[in-house]
Each structure stands twice: as structure tokens, then as C-alpha cells.
Amino acid sequence: MTKAGDWKSYKRVLLPPVKDLHHLDVYQEQGGYQALRAVLSDWKPEDVTAEVKLSGLRGRGGAGFPTGLKWSFMPPVKPDVPRYLCCNADESEPGTFKDRQLMEYNPHLLFEGILIAGYAMSLKACYLYVRGEFASWITLLQNELSKAYDAKLVGDNILGTDHSMDIIIHKGAGAYICGEETSLMESLEGKRAYPRIKPPFPAQSGIWGYPTTINNVETLACAPIIINRGGDWFAGVGAKKHPGPVLYGISGHVNRPGVYEYPTGMLITDLLEIAGGMRDNKKLKALVPGGASVPVLRADMIDGVTMDVESLQEAGSMMGTAGMLFLDEDTDMVAFLRRVARFYHHESCGQCTPCREGTGWMENLITRIDDGEGNLRDLDLLLDLCDQMEGRTVCALADAAAWPVRNTIKRFRGDFERRCRPAAWAVNA
Amino acid sequence: MPKVIIDGEEYAFEGRPSLLQFCLDHGIELPHFCYHPSMSVPANCRQCLVDVGAPVRDRETGEFQLDENGEKVIRYFPKLQTSCSHVISDGQVVHTARSSKKVERAQCDTMEFLLINHPLDCPICDQAGHCPLQIQAYKYGPEGSRFEFQKVHKPKKVKLGPNVILDAERCINCTRCVRFTDEISRSRQLTIIERGVKNYPITPPGVSFDEPYSMNVIDLCPVGALTSADFRFQARIWEMASAPSITTTNAKGSNCFLWVRDNLVMRITPRPNPDVNEFWLPDEDRLTYRRFNEDRPCGPAALNKSGPCSWDEAIRETAEILSNAGKETLFLASAHATVEDNWMLMQLAEVVGGQVAGYIPHIEPGHGDGWLRTDDRAPNSQGCERLGLQPVDMKLWGARLEAGEVQVLYVLEDDPVAAGLCSTQALDNVEVILHYHSTTNQTLPSANVALPAATVAETVGTFVNEAGRAQCVVPAKVIKGVNRTLMMQMGLSRADQHGTPFDRWHNESHYVDCKPSWEIIPLVARALGVEIAAQSPKKVMQHISVSIPAFTGATYKAMGLSGVMLPPIEIEVAS
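The joint structure predicted for all components is written out below.
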């Protein structure tokens, strides 16, 4: 028995197998917006937050911060001070594609979650910041949102109560950095998406300088489930310290890549089996368990490792967004890293010196190694650059760029050394 | 009072100062590029990293935890902090590069990053010599570079506006210029474009960087990325001497430096003065540097000597005209001249018995912007007012001049024809004695005696700005004649920068044959047989500060480099 419990009989709740669930009437037939009705009629806002705290829900956007705690950071309501919720749908981490599924197949769950969170924090407006490249999903979301407005589920006096809340869909203009919460806010305000210095944190000074809470799509979509089934139920699903259903985005050299909903704490090997095993019966070489920025794991490091914060940390990686990338034995790790480094070089916003200059330098070095012109000392220089970038910038992009480089070199050093030119003299002659 | 320990030394502080500003105020050097005291803190250069910690308190007792040696246990922030964005709190312990290898390494690392894509073209860069990047690279940077790739290429010569040219490759993306246009001048004419390592500041499409304060970004730029269209490639820093002065294009009296090479003013840059112009200077003030070099007179001239003559002859001729005319002489004071010069003129008027009509007002309505530009285009109207002089009644005196009721007109450093007081024809029958700065002076052709006067760059004297702040200037360049007072006021090593008559490189033609008005007027008085007692501007100001209540306290010593506020007076608004 794993931490995930009896996962074979797990019934999906985030993406239940219902045809046309994205239509408002289908969603309501399936019991949709019941949680909202219940909350608006019987719950006090602080009780909602308490229930979310009880559920143990952790943010699904990558950092895994406890959601109930985050909601409770909002300062007390002041009549003249607006406060905002922001839903981060700028999903752009390589290997991550779960929020897109939610927005496509169950948008009303997201809206319901937003409305519940808005009620819990007594706020009147939510910005739904969707990645610009998701053009067709934005149209779909907007259509469904209009229907919800028409059905009095969103807007003024929701379902005839005193509570009013607007949801504004904002289309991003296409930069990875806009997924960072503070630069998302800058972008939302119409400014250049440079991350802000923290403190002050968004709960004190967020959008337009007002108290703001920012959550991931999947995190907010969990709120109606917690209300419907109770925090206890949610806390009982999956790994104890990181409970709840999770959308695993499985990609790479597997037979059936896709988004799979299961409890947290699934054995990585089980998930590989669910995804149909490795393509062409090849052997697994490496796994990136949570989106491109988390440290890569070697095949021999995943035995008994489960998909939750604790276990992955022990194994030397992170949960991230649960976007799992399986790489088979034929993978060229140098080329893999070159591509990852290229991504971060291209997406560095250029605000802080170490990230702006370091990401490009890293890509240069890895490209040289990949082209067979690298030197052994370049590997040490790369590790040095990781030291010089990590923890020295405003946001975590420099860290996100340095971790894969550091860990891929550390864990696949042989692959890199073979591609380098031999040292000018034998080291231990 | 709360205390902070920096590198083992304890400092008391008040309020919530930023760590970087606190260190700079207390003489602790911290390398930095993006921080500027008057603008927001982006903490993007990451150069000012320091290690910050705080003593740990026991949760229950509230006492400080002590280690086995009895020292307080310090818990440090997990990451190095940017000192510019870090607000000090009581008891914190700070380690700069002087006491922490970790910080030293971090600052060196950031410097290495900053330099990998910087062109390192210091030998041809305007900024070299006073470039923060260059200076700090020597002090805090690595010895060499491990970067073995082609540097990023960006636009090399972008004309952002009429006065500013960008070399994007030199840019280190500190965003000072962008923040200046966002927060200080509020023109919002600059923004960063591109992303990552290709970033550089530029104007939005179709916009020219033509705001009246655009050139401030040149001084703000910590590298040579933003250069002056005028000064670009004209002089190296170490070839020039800078003299503290004030600008005279308007009544604000902004503090500035005049940069001089071979006795030519090469450029004007702001001199910080929190009470006047802070760190800024409008473009119009900077672009006037040419008037100190170009169209300058070469010695005095007298009509009945049929042109150029010696100073002795010119003075004698002046005295003759004045003694003949006596009470019929009309004196015009000037808002372009110093307080001392105007005072001297009043003394001379007394000696001759003539009348001082006042000064010609130079008001240009709508020119002021409530900041560093004023409607008044002359620097010393307030000084004239405080001496008891009024703006000339242009209609009255214009009519009298046109009617030929004035025999002799004595003009101090001004241009009645250009100012519209009278026509050139009206002056045909008037004997005009003119102190002038530039050969473009339109009254010059009508002058019977033309006396070249020293400009603000060559003289010693006092100006009073519109707010009533008296500020004195010292000479930045030398005049042809010998004047001990002027020489004493110049910096000791300054002769090197001007050249002496014995240097082969110095250019004789850059020495203007003029005299300060406060030297000319006593000479005229002497030729009339009267000695004006106080002859040096310093003594004049000493005398004025005691005898005229509106100038109380305005001695040279009190004014120093930043000026002194004079007691308020009631001023009639110049019409």
C-alpha cells in the first residue's frame, strides 16, 4: 500500500469523466455550484478559510505553499480599500500542461473555486490572468463566464445574496516571467513584467498596490471540492503532508502521455505504468518530476519515491507543478540541458544582472559542449555560474535556470565529460 | 536609540533608513549602480549585496540567546540582501565585503556578470575616468574574465532625441534613465525594450526624447551608454577641470559645474544642492556653454578712436563722456550682472550724479515650469530688487530715448536694443557706454565705448535667485589680463588645465580680453578723480551684507558653495 492508498479505485473529482462538462447546464446537472450556494447561505467567510486550512491544500503552481495560510494573510477588510484575488493561469513551465486541461474541460469548477475564495477573503474582484498563447481557451473561458454571468452566478448579488464578485479574464502577452506572481501583477497593471522585490508581499501590496491573493488554477479548482466533501475528506486523500487530488502532466518518452488525475503520493513507477510504460520498451534514463526547473532524477533514484513534497525532497528534487517528463535511455542529456538552458536564456526578463548575464553564458557553454568543442573545465565553470546565480536575484527565475544545470551535470556528469574535449594533460597520469 | 552593527562597528540610527544610504552617509563604501537617492529602488544591479543577520531571542524569556563564549547568537538571512532595498532594524548585524568573504565573492561575481557583455571600450568612452562601472570593476571585480564567447551586440549609436545618444552595448540595464523619466521628469519618454540580455532603454516608436530635462540621464547613467550629442568624443575627463558655478539662463540659480579645457568651457553638469536643484539641470542650462567660448569680444573699442583701443584709452574716453554729461547720464543696471557689479554701478552713478533707471526685465511668460525653469530669463532680478533697483519702465524710458531726451546711456551687461527698450536709430544721437559679453549684442554697433565684461564663467560675484538665495560664483576660466582677485579665487591646480603662456599646447586665442565690471567701474571712477573704497567683490559683499538689510548675512564665507537664504523682502512684480 502506498501513500496514495487505493488509487486504482480513485474517482476523479477535478476532471470527472463527464461529457461536455464545460457547459454550464451539464456542470450544474452534475451538482455544480452547490458548494457556492452552500457557502453563500450557510458559511461565514472565516469558516471557509478554516476549512481550506483543515484540508491541508498546498498550492499547485509549483512552490507548494499552504493555501489556507495564504488566504489568512489578507489584512482585515477596510471599507475604502479594494482587495483582489488573482488567478494565475499563465501556465508556461516546460512540461506543464494541467491548468489548460482544467480550463478546457471543467472551467466552471475554476469559476466556482474563484467565487468561494473571493467569499472567503471578502473581496469583490478576481483577475484571471491567462497565458496569451492559450487563445482558444480564453475564448472558451469567456463564453462560459458570460453564461455564468447570465445565470447570476457571477456579478452583482450572486444567487440573490448580498455578495457580489466580478471575474475579469486578462490575456497575457506571452512571457514566461509573467507566471511569477509579482511580475504577473506588473503585467496586469500594464507595465513591463519585471518581478517586484518582496517584501512587501502581495497580501500587503499587490495589484495596484492593494491587498491581493494570487493562486494557481488547480489550487482554486480544489476549493469547491473541499467545501462539498469537507476538509477532512480532502486531507485524507493521498500523502498526509501534501494531500488532495493532483493533475499529473505526464510527457516524454512514454506510450500514453497526457494529464492524469490521481491522489498525491503516487509511486513514480505506478505513474509510469499508468502512462503505458516507456515507448518501444526502452529503459528509463531520467525523470524531471515537476516541470523543467526542478532537479532531474536518475532512473536509479526513483525507486520507492512518491509524488509529494516530502518524498521528492528526500530524493533530491521537488514536486513543482507535477509535470513529469520521462526520458528514455537514448536521450542525449547534453542536448536536453541545452534546450532547457536555451529556454531560460530566452525567458529571462533581464532585470537582475546574475540572471540576465548568467543564463546566456550558461547556454553558450552548454552549446559548446553539445557541439563537441567544450572543455572539461567548462563543467566546473557551469557549476560556478550556478553558485553565482542562485539566490541572488529578485525572483526565482535564476534559481529555476540554475537547478537543472547543476543537477543534470551532477547526476549525469559522465555524459557531459564524454562530450568534452580531453584535458590537455592527463589528470592522474 | 536603535543601533546597527556594520563590520563590527556600532552605529546609532533614527527612523527607517535604507542600509545602503545609511552606509553611504557614514562613509562606508558599498558598490552599487541602480540605486539613486531620489528615485525608487529596483534592486536590479545586485551589486550592493551584503550579509545581514539579527541576534536570536529566546521565544519564552525574550532574552538574547548566547553561545558558549557568551556572544549573542546571530541568525543570518538565508540569502544575501541587497542593501539598497533593505531597511535597517534595531540590533541587526551587517557584513560588507570588508568583513565577509562571502559578500566579497558575491560582489565580485556580479561584477564578472556585468562585464561579460560590456564592450570594455573604455579607451574611447566618454565616461572613462569617472565611470562607476570602471572604478568599481577595479575595486571589486575579478582580475580577468572567464567568458570566451562573442558578446551580445546591440544598437551602437541611437539618437534618442536632440541631445542624447545611446550606445546600447555599454548599457548595464540599471534603469536609472527610465526611472528618471517616469518618476522625476514624468515625461515617460523612455522605456526598456527587448528581453533578457538584449534589453536596452529607448523611446517608444515615434517619440523623440526631447523633454526639457533629457540630458540629466547622461549624468545618471553609471556607464557611458547615454552620451551628450554635443559633448560626445569632445574631451576626456582628466583633461578638464571643473569649477563650481551656477547657471544664468533663468532665475532659478541651479548649481552646476563648468568643465574647462584649455580655457574653453566644454560642458555644464549639475552640482547637487538639495535646496535648489537637487541633482538636476535643465537642458537649456547645459547648452549655454558655447556662449562662454564663442562670439567673445577681443578687447575694448571706442568710436572716436575708430575702433579697438587699449583699456586705458577706453576708460579715459568713458570718464570724459561721463564728466561732460554729468547729471544727464542715464545708467541701466542689469539682472545679468552680479550684485557687486550693480552696486558698483550705483556708486558710479552717485559719483557722476546721473540717474539709475533700473534694470531691464527679461520675463518670458510661459517659459517657467514650476521646477528648474522660470519665466524670468535673467539670473539676478532678485539681487537688483534687493539693491533697491526697479525694473525699467520700458514705455517711459523708451519714449524718452526715442525723443532724444537722453544724452549719455551707460549700460551694464545688457542689450537695450534686443530687449526692445529703444531702436538702434534712437541711439544714433546718444553717447552709449556698453559693458557687454558677446559680439552678438545688438546695442554694440551703437556703442561709443564698448567695454568687454567678464561672464559668469570668468568672474567672482553673487547672484540672488528667485527664492531669495544668494549664491556666489568663482571663475572657471581665466581672462587675458592679470587680476589678483580672480586668480586667488581659482583652485590652486587649475592653471594646469588652462595652460600658462609658457605652455606650448595652450591656445592664446582662448583667452578673452575682458574685465569684470567690478574692476572696470572703479577704474572709471578713478579717472573721474574718485576712489571707490571697496574694490574686491568680497569686500563689496561684506559691505552690502552689513549696510543693506535685504542682504543680511550674505558674506562669501556664509554663502560658500551652496548659498545662503536671505531674509524675505516684498518684491513688486516686474511688469
